[in-house]
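Q: Structure tokens for this one, please.
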Amino acid sequence: MFRILALLFILIPPLEIYILFKFGAAFGAFNTFLIVVVTGIVGAALAKSEGLIVINKIQTELGQNKLPAKDMIQGLIIFAGGILLLTPGFFTDILGLTMILPGTRLMYIGLFKGLFEKGMKSGNVKFYSFNNGAHQSTNFNEHETVKSDENVIEADFTKK
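A: Here is the predicted structure, written as tokens:
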């Protein structure tokens, strides 16, 4: 995972600069600058409105004594999309916009849910809890079973 992130941090900035220069040469520097600023402002407003909707859903589910796992994942995806929209560049703007719009956000939920389940099965996912200053860690390993449906992830585990 570290190698993938390192590769992305190395490749995306030069790609964004290249695209910005090409777009600027075709449509003018001022128009390119204007588009980058407008997407940042519109993206921040959209991220805020979608984020407030998800926060209200989380509060409603918590008030009904339900675990809002799916909505919490949506909140994290919206947050990441907002950060990408504030980052100058067209590639990051398109990616951020797809993370904020409700229809395409479901695609990311499925992707992250699959990665999370894979991590639980491989033992790479660790849960930490703090109870009155005591620290507990829970690891999952390959002998455990993981079941999930749209709103709930169930897992059997043993403490190591």
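A few notes: The chain has one domain: 2-123. The first strand starts at residue 126 and ends at 131.
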